[in-house]
Amino acid sequence: xxxxxxxxxxxxxxxxxxxxxxxxxxxxxxxxxxxxxxxxxxxxxxxxxxxxxxxxxxxxxxxxxxxxxxxxxxxxxxxxxxxxxxxxxxxxxxxxxxxxxxxxxxxxxxxxxxxxxxxxxxxxxxxxxxxxxxxxxxxxxxxxxxxxxxxxxxxxxxxxxxxxxxxxxxxxxxxxxxxxxxxxxxxxxxxxxxxxxxxxxxxxxxxxxxxxxxxxxxxxxxxxxxxxxxxxx
Length: 233
Hints:
The chain is an alpha/beta fold. The chain contains five helices and 16 strands. The N terminus is likely disordered.
């Protein structure tokens, strides 16, 4: 049986990493073990409880604090910076946490969630990664349960080492993308247009050990199987 343990994505040349933990479900221990040493942890509301349960220590807790446990909130007031927002707000707790992190000008951001059965929350979380404030972050990533994705704000390009046969999907979740190119896959694209939520980029297959992906404009989300992730540059 093929080993399904996630392989950590290696990103070189970056100085500081933030991990933004959000709520809904417990974090996958196998994914938590892959987080880079020294990463700064920020929790969105009840993400605090999931972070602490997974052995992570948030330096900041952000949100309207309506879903964090009393014990988690007590811990936060003693050990972390608490940035409280009123419930009558226009942004989600995830958006608030990501905006806070973007103000630190990090080199890498990893949105970390245990997953969940709320499709609206899932879509909103991925939508938050398309905010213009995040466009200057060199590496923008997400672990959703055991699923790994990278979010590319155009113009952007990545080169990823994967196992041949790995299934890769490209989705324009934030609106149309232009200038989308993919090589090293069974179905290559060259300067293609992807309309919002189009299935045109779904379920491609790597035929090479290196896959290259680029986008000229728009926000492109690229899903990789966690067992196939190797090095990127």
